[in-house]
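Here's my example:
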Amino acid sequence: MDNLHVQLGFPADQRALAAQLFWQAFGGKLGLLLGPAPRALAFLEPVLDPTHCLSICAEDGALLGLAGFKTERSAFVGGTLTDLRRTYGLGGALWRAPLLSMLERQVEQGVLLMDGIAVMPQARGLGIGTALLDGIVAEAARRGCREVRLDVIDTNPRARALYERRGFQPGTVETTFPFRWLLGFSSATRMTKSVTAPAPRRQSA
């Protein structure tokens, strides 16, 4: 696909579609925690932070793919106990919150955490995932980060292959025991890529 334009955020009128796209990509991982789909979407849609997301849209403005990230300030998918309670009730929020906290990754200074890539089914195979991943690395450089980090689960070998092709190196492996039956995967591998800061612009004489 020619002329892929990676932009920060997503169009305001595409928020519902952004939530659907995220759930389409990660519902298999989060289904037992946030599902069924209508409730998950009700939770996700208002808590998405477009300032921590890159996206690619078609010429007509339709969302084709997105990649979320997390910094010390915020994350693409936020949400508090109050947000959980709004969707799942107090009881549902109280048991979901600690399990969701297990999936949270702490942000290290100088490191940009990527929070997954999601591409619309009709747009797969067009280079959108690669463009978004490269965009994440460029965004990290723009923010002065020294490294991009992500976690890839053992049930997503295609994503891992993409990350390795783009220079990400595997590191530590974390298991989900004893909650793998609930989360839908057995382990996650941390992968990192060093970031080269952009060269400073030369001052005009």
